[in-house]
Amino acid sequence: MSLVEEFNDYRSRMNEKIMSADNKIIKRIFNLDTNAYAEGALPEKTKEMIGLACSMVLRCDDCVKYHLGKCAELGVSDAEMQEVFSIATLIGGTIVVPHLRRAYEYWEELLTTTKE
Length: 116
Known about the structure:
This protein is 80% helix and 0% strand. It has helices at residues 3-20, 24-36, 44-58, 61-73, 78-92, 97-115.
């Protein structure tokens, strides 16, 4: 199973379990997250790139993978992604480098899977 399939399967499975608990607060947080990234004054693509940079700086690998997947879906180019990576690493400092490595690996796999 690929990194992308493994992450997406796990995320879907666990989100189903979480949502089935019918916790109003959790559901509202998930809804707020969904609405924050919807098209608005900023395009969805821009919001996802911002979310990715923030996630890298915060060192959340699951968030990084999620935003990388959305960026791939929204047609972010490799050149745009390299700029996001560089800005996130600049802002976050060298502590972000391990997350940059994993993000780079995941992005390469996303590009490979979308070409097939």
